[in-house]
């Protein structure tokens, strides 16, 4: 009862309205500040973004010791490490690298990939993309990356991250927003989107 009477008073309603208005203005200004920071970050980012390319070497005879590997993580049965090896999940070492001596491990394998650079298995796409001879193709892609992809590909630090990002399915892999252009080969590292298959 007392709360009801208090809320009926005009000065209480005025205070509530004033506080609501103050909250709205401050959150709008904070949002604008964040948006402005993001814009300046994009404008000041390097236009000539260089990717450090991996050189091909074999773990067995390399003098460089690899202590940790990044890998594609998401595969249910297969994984790709940053050296281009594809292996079964059970053959992954504790340091994140594929066991190169395991029978399932293969380096730079393009097992399910078509000549246009589209593959049916994500891990094979990443492995194939990591081949040293794919560097000119990827550099051409980066130089011609559309404005819409600029944010994604300027965040890429190296060859492995570029291949992980490039092989993910994107809007280029679909038609009509809900159907893959080629359901058998939807992971692409190539310059062009998958070929459009007739329905």
UniProtKB/TrEMBL annotation:
Pfam families: SPRING1 (PF10218). InterPro entries: SPRING1. Keywords: Glycoprotein, Golgi apparatus, Membrane, Transmembrane, Transmembrane helix. GO terms for biological process: positive regulation of SREBP signaling pathway. Signal peptide: none annotated. It is found in: Golgi apparatus membrane. Its main location: Golgi. Coiled coil: none annotated. It is a single-pass membrane protein. One of its GO terms (cellular component) is Golgi membrane. Belongs to the SPRING family. PANTHER family: SREBP REGULATING GENE PROTEIN. This is SREBP regulating gene protein. The lineage of its organism: Eukaryota, Metazoa, Chordata, Craniata, Vertebrata. The gene is SPRING1.
């Amino acid at each position: 009862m007392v709360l009801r009477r208090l809320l009926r008073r005009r000065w209480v309603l005025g205070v509530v309205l004033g506080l609501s208005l103050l909250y709205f203005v401050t959150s709008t200004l904070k949002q604008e500040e964040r948006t402005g920071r993001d814009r300046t970050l994009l404008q000041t980012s390097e236009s000539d973004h260089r990717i450090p390319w991996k050189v091909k070497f074999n773990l067995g005879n390399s003098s460089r010791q690899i202590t940790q590997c990044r890998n594609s993580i998401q595969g249910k049965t297969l994984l790709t490490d940053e050296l281009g090896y594809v292996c079964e999940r059970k053959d992954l070492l504790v340091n994140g690298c594929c066991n190169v001596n395991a029978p399932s491990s293969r380096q730079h394998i393009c097992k399910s990939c078509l000549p246009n650079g589209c593959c049916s298995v994500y891990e094979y796409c990443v492995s194939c993309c990591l081949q040293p001879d794919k560097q000119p193709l990827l550099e051409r892609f980066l130089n011609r990356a559309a404005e819409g992809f600029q944010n994604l590909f300027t965040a890429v630090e190296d060859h492995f991250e570029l291949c992980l990002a490039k092989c993910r399915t994107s809007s280029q892999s679909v038609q009509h927003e809900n159907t893959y252009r080629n359901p058998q080969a939807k992971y692409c590292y190539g310059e062009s989107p998958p070929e459009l298959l007739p329905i």
